[in-house]
Amino acid sequence: MDVLDLARWQFGITTVYHFLMVPLTLGLGMAVAIMQSRWVKTGDEKFLRMTKFWGKVYLINFIVGVATGLVQEFQFGMAWSEYSRFVGDVFGAPLAMEGLLAFFVESTFLGIWIFGWGRLRKGIHLAALWCAVIGSWISAYFIIVANSWMQHPVGVELGADGRPVMTDIWAVLTNSTALAAYSHTILGALVVAGMFLLGISWYQLWRRRRDGIDTVDATGRVIVGENTDLPGRDRTDHGVWIWSLRFGAIVAIAAFAGTVVSGDVQGKLMYEQQPMKMAAAEAACHTGSSFSVLSLGDPGSTDCTKVITLIEVPGALGFLGTGEWGADMPGMSDLEPQYVDKYGATIPDEAVFGDRAGSEIQYVPVTWITYWGFRLMIGLGGVVALGGIVALWLTRKGTVPRSSWIMRLALLGIVAPFAANIAGWIFTEMGRQPFVVAPNPDATGIDGVFMFTAAAVSPGVTAGEILFSVITLTVVYGIMLAIELFLLVKYIRGGVAASMPELTARREHGEDTGPDAGRDDVLAFAY
Amino acid sequence: MEPLAIVWFIAIAVLWIGYLLLEGFDLGVGMHMIFSTKDERERRVMLNTIGPVWDGNEVWLITAGAAIFAAYPLWYASLFSTLYVPLTIALVGLIVRAVGIEYRGKIHTERWRAFWTWMIGLGSLIVAFCVGAALALTSTGLPIDGNGDRVGGPFVWLTVPAVLGGLAIVGFALAHSATFLALKADGGVRERAARFAAVWAPLCLVPAAAWALWVQFANGGGVLSWLFVLLAVIAAVVGWLSARRRSEGLAFTGYAGFGLFGAAAVFTGMFPVVLPSTIDSAFDLTVSNAANSPYTLGVMTVVAAFALPVILAYQAWSYWIFRKRVTPGMIPDAHIVLPAVLRADRSGARGDGVAQQG
Question: Angle B55-B251-B167 (CA atoms, 0-180°, nearest 5)?
Fold first, then answer.
């Protein structure tokens, strides 16, 4: 593999890994903030327990997201120095704004929240969490702005040296692509959080039934019990899980419905801004208006005889792309000559391209990835929404069925929205190839501003260095993931008492004689 | 010279100095955790002095990096790609250290704690060394060609100034954090830290002083940068004398002042060059030829002028909230996490072992 392939793998691995943590941080943080707000407002112990339990899980996940996010900030310069030079006038600004306006807020106030239990007034402590969560949402916005500029460069003009020069920051910040992608990303994160709440709460309610704590009467309605041998397994505990479960299901269903709308907006923008990506998503070889439900053969081929479309919905693709049923959408075989015409058939003979100069440019993305990535995203999203509805129905009488395989399905359901998120990102990033900054044929994009991925990599960096980084980071990331999952499982199996030592202390020593009693000013939380 | 380009050189210097002064003691506390005590409760005292603030402190690094990208993309591209190997190692250090701080207290077995103590300590050491090396190299030069790309192999950066800069930040972090711990902790941690600040800290500051002088002599530093060198020396002496008298607040201020003025001396000494080329001074990256357009710099100036004072205000507030010394008595006992499961499954508790609490 040459430097370019290695650098792309390196970026792909580190980014996909980072994005395993990001949606859970964005979605669960908001959920915890809502829970703590309910507690402050109602004083209901149930909400305090939810805040503590889900807050702990949130933090275990948060830190790995932060740690791997550092890599993202550095690697543009490290592996993609030509890219950084080319886009520097516009791309660095949203990254720096993210730091100055969002990440500082998020990190500082999260520290205040973690250590602020018992030291701050309730309202101020709650406000600290809201600042941290809103900070993380703003942070996501600036990152999406940066990414969207690569999909749809706006707010610039071509400078004398051929590099884009920013002329309108407002256009960059309100890029239509960014607004749609941000909504889609946030809604996708909420689906992740919803299913996470649902799956784990399901396990806890199932555990309570299996341990004989909760039972059901003849009509199937729950009879809530308690077991004083198990810390935290009292009557309030049931309320914690059933509320979390139903809240999670509702969030997942509503957020999925939202992604259908935001995804539709994105599809229409993509048709205008990146028609080849839209065609690749559909493995649409010929121009036409049919939405492919299943295509086999070699969907990446522009030789149309090799693509076999088994099931298709006539007219639906036109609706997805333009809002008009039956409108014709350009196919890859028709688009490719247009791209060759505009941007050349071969990589230009310039120094930045190194050995790659003169080789043929593949304008058609790796279509089996875009085609199946697109379908995996939508399909898994639909499965999640369906699962959420079924979960609401099954728990209508206040608890979950005793079936262990339904419980396992609920836990497995946690994985689905993560996979949908990743599939969506891989689709949209691979669908942009061979460009790192995609040219846009529509009137709002600046058609002359584009960059081939082949020109973006650092000329001075060797393949060995990038290989070193790929191996090191993959190993470190793998270990961190294993440790994170181990800790998550441990704290989830421990139930609320794992995150609230006072529940254990209360049981063993009575109200005010816990192990730390008699010492003054013991920290409510310490590392 | 574009005035906003100068403004951004100063802004980036401010961000780096903010990083060194704030994360400086976080990194030092991490290193002290390895060697200055064997007592678990004392280790937890040390970790909890930085507990509420370390993550906010680290953002200064990220923002400093992003600000270089936003204001001087050519500087960002050349420096980061040339230092590919040390920055990769620094990233690994940042990752294991951050995860270690958060995870160390989550399980209470001997092995788990020992593992993360080493991760926090070694991670801090690696980060301090690599960041120091990178800053030293951007002030003394790298072999870059006319396009700003590295000439030579992956280890061509490993030179005397690089090692000097690495040792400078490691040493500064150790000294700075000793006065920080003396100010923020109580009990044995405070006593040992105060002794370290009085006895070993001056030695720790020598590499940093040597680096600052190197930049002055290499670039023929002006009056301003020599003034900063002088102030740095005075601050260090004041810090050292105060540490010997056990005047903890003044000792902290003194060593922090050394960091502030020392870094200011380096930045003013290298100005207006941001990354010298050791091949040909015609290839030097400067505040003029590496900077972004006036429009972009103007936008970023507005954002920074609004954000930086606000950041300083709320970070100061967070230090105010957690201003109390951390005493051994404030550390809660270990909480063993057991599965909330009835019957035989509770044997799953075995993995957690017996709580070891100092």
Answer: 60
Residue A354 forms contact with B (CB below 8 Å): no
Q: Where are the beta strands (DSSP E) in A98-176?
A: 156-158, 164-166
Q: Which sequence spans correspond to the domains of chain B?
A: 3-221+270-352
- Out of B56, B88, B332, the one facing A516 most closely (by C-beta) is B332
Q: Say which residues have a Cβ less than 8 Å from residue A147's Cβ, sequence separation at least 6.
A: A178, A181
Closest residue in chain B to residue A459, using alpha carbons only: B149
On whether any CB of chain A is under 8 Å from the CB of B245, the answer is: no
How long, in residues, is chain B?
A: 358
- Are B84 and A469 a contacting pair at CB < 8 A? yes
Tokens of B73: 């993309």
Does residue A447 register a pLDDT over 80?
no
Residue with tokens 């006539």: A314
What is the 8-class DSSP label of residue A165? E
For B93-119, what is each residue's pLDDT tens digit? 999 999 999 999 999 899 999 999 999
CA atoms within 13 A on the CB side of B58: 28
A308 touches chain B (CB under 8 A): no
Give CA–CA dist B165/B131, Å, rounded.
Answer: 8
Distance from CA of B65 to the nearest CA of A (A): 7
DSSP for A219-273? TS-EE----TTSTT-SHHHHHHHHHHHHHHHHHHHHHHHHHHHHHHHHHHHHHHH
What ipTM was estimated for this complex? Answer: 0.92
Q: Which two tokens stand for residue A66?
A: 């932060």
Whether A240 contacts A46, CB under 8 Å: yes
Contact B331 A523 (CB under 8 A): yes
Any B CB within 8 A of A60 CB? yes
At a CB cut-off of 8 Å and minimum separation 6, what does B258 contact?
B172, B205, B208, B232, B233, B235, B236, B239
Q: What angle do CA A201, A207, A209 make, to 5 degrees?
A: 110
Identity at B357, one-letter amino acid code? Q
Q: Is A503 on the interface with B (CB under 8 A)?
A: no
Q: Are A114 and B78 a contacting pair at CB < 8 A? A: no
Can you tell me the distance from the alpha carbon of A159 to that of A85, in angstroms, rounded to the nearest whole number?
Answer: 13
This prediction has a pTM of 0.92
Q: Give the pair of three-digit tokens for residue A308.
A: 């076999």
CA distance A232 to chain B (A): 8
Query: Which among A228, A276, A202, A263 has a CA at the least distance from the CA of A433?
Result: A276
Distance (Å, whole) CA B23 – CA B170: 12
Assigned token pair, A338: 């247009």
**CB-CB: which of A88, A494, A501 is closest to B73?**
A88
Give the mean model confidence (pLDDT) for residues A200-210.
94
pLDDT in tens, B266-310: 999 898 999 999 999 899 999 989 999 999 999 999 999 999 999
End-to-end CA, chain B: 60
b/e A296-324 (16+ beta carbons within 10 angstroms → b): eebbbbbeeeebebeebeeebbbbbbbee
Tokens of B191: 């006593």
Across all residues in chain B, what is the average pLDDT? 91
Digit-coded pLDDT (tens) for B149-180: 999 889 999 999 999 999 999 999 999 999 99
Q: Which of B29, B40, B81, B118 to mutate to test the interface with A (most CBs of A within 10 A)?
A: B81
A404 touches B: beta carbon within 8 Å = no
What residues of chain B, 339 to 358, have a C-beta less than 8 Å from chain A?
339-343, 348
Residues 127-186 of A with CB under 8 A from B: 159, 165-167, 169
Residue A56's closest chain B neighbor by CA?
B106
Does A460 contact B151 at a Cβ distance shorter than 8 Å?
yes
CB < 8 Å to B54, chain A: 111
Determine if the peptide bond prior to A434 is cis (ω within 30°): yes
